[in-house]
Recover the amino acids of this structure.
């Protein structure tokens, strides 16, 4: 995932009358220093982000990602991002992505300590090869997220529905999964419900019904899950949001972790118990996710 | 808190035979770009830090801060920092601090994405004037941290005892406190115990006994609390670590939030209920905390 493009954005220069935002952008060398040590993103993980999948130069589901960025900004008391400015930055970054798969990241930081405004930038990088995860699948373990299902409602300062830059716990959970010989993790609540993976959403199949944990604050509402549910509904399947008890993991007819860059990774085992894999459906799902989507 | 000094450190060049680490340091302009957008500190708050108080050019309790940095590194699976290298960097930074109070920050990031080694740096800045908090005191509110007291034992991947760069929740809790008309917050567990403030430790007075929540994983072990307990014990007081129920907040004879830069801030009210203030003891405590400590 070597970065090949980076664009600094001036979020303060985004007045609504503007039709061309290029003057608010500064292309920078992604390998050269571009941020000061006073950056609050780096001092306190104080900011928000999005990772957008790019296929053959087409950035996927930009609207859904910009909506989630706006939602994260609101939860974190950051100024609302100007959607037109960010969309133009994504277009610029996508134009730098050649054929194949890439990833565009959007970052909105609270800025420099005691500085006047947030800082913001966009990067583009070639995506890792995710073929193996998509076809051979992944082994996962369940890990306690420490919260009850209702924590986000009771304590919005826990920022549980926001995609913040404070991902140290998510990364630690992935390291713990690797230590246990697995590829990824599924977070559970202390009261026995299933949430999401550290960087992906969970979808279970139960007959002809696809189920995902209801995103009422405790998890990120995944853009990939959302897009896939639309597609599955159009294909005639049932799709439902539910409070999913951890016990449902072992009775599922199939299960996937889905996210913007890795796309749909079929789960082959949860806590060392095998899960049935539907290779054909998985291939169809990934073909859909790789097609241009808006 | 304008930064006036920044030093990049090469943690990979810290072999133990070295007696002079100056070749592993590069002074940089703190107002100029020094970090790349690939930095994992900035992308995911993936790293650890320390904030050290400096009084008239003397960095306080450097040994205790370096021990905690090492502990955080272990919890986060980061390479152990070389204490001699970091101590030399602190000495360099302290030499750049004039009379009065300053703050030196140590940052150890997991590095650049897919890069070979962590990145690290040290900054120095003039401290904010904390006289008002130290003399007039602070109003605090209690905020649910979402966890039970035993969460860190059950789930070490929550990194609860580590001082990570993922401080978005701590910052959100401070904003929530300000929204409620308070200056600071005290985190509580869902099972009714008291933890710490978002950037400080809590000390309660009960007669001639000083009490602080037991740091078994759920909170940071504060260097200021530790130093103050040594001092209070030497003065003949009892000092104890306990599981402190939230109900104890309202029966305390006095209460303080203590931390390396603001030092001891007497609490004047908790959730709008007045707390007795011992101005004389507070002044003596802050005089001790401002004296050179190692
Ligand atoms: C915590 C978390 N949940 C879910 C997702 C999946 O979201 P999306 O499908 O929009 O990539 C992500 C993406 O990184 C995530 O970080
Ligand atoms: C969460 C937390 N607890 C406690 C403290 C107090 O630690 P110290 O006294 O070492 O500054 C800090 C310091 O910033 C902190 O961030």
């Amino acid at each position: 995932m070597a970065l090949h493009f980076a664009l600094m954005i001036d979020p303060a220069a985004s007045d609504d009358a503007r039709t061309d935002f290029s003057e608010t952008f500064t292309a920078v060398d992604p390998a050269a220093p571009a941020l000061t040590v006073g950056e609050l993103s780096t001092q306190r993980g104080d900011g928000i982000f999005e990772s957008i999948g790019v296929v053959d130069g087409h950035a996927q589901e930009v609207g859904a990602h910009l909506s989630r960025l706006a939602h994260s900004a609101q939860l974190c008391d950051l100024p609302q991002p100007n959607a037109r400015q960010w969309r133009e930055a994504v277009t610029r970054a996508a134009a730098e992505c050649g054929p194949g798969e890439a990833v565009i990241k959007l970052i909105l930081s609270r800025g420099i300590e005691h500085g006047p405004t947030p800082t913001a930038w966009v990067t583009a990088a070639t995506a890792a090869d995710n073929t193996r995860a998509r076809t051979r699948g992944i082994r996962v373990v369940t890990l306690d997220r420490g919260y009850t299902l209702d924590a986000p409602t009771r304590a919005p300062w826990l920022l549980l529905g926001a995609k913040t830059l404070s991902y140290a716990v998510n990364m630690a959970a992935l390291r713990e999964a690797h230590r246990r010989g697995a590829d990824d993790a599924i977070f559970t609540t202390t009261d026995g419900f299933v949430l999401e993976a550290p960087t992906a959403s969970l979808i279970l199949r139960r007959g002809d019904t696809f189920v995902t944990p209801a995103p009422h604050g405790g998890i990120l509402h995944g853009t990939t899950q959302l897009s896939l549910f639309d597609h599955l509904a159009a294909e005639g399947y049932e799709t439902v949001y539910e409070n999913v008890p951890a016990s449902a993991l072992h009775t599922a007819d199939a299960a996937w972790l889905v996210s913007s860059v890795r796309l749909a990774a079929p789960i082959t085992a949860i806590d060392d118990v095998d899960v049935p894999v539907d290779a054909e459906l998985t291939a169809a799902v990934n073909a859909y996710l790789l097609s241009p989507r808006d």
Remarks:
- The helical segments of chain A are 40-44, 62-75, 83-94, 131-135, 151-154, 168-179, 223-234, 279-290.
- The longest helix of chain A spans residues 62-75.
- The longest strand of chain A covers residues 47-55.
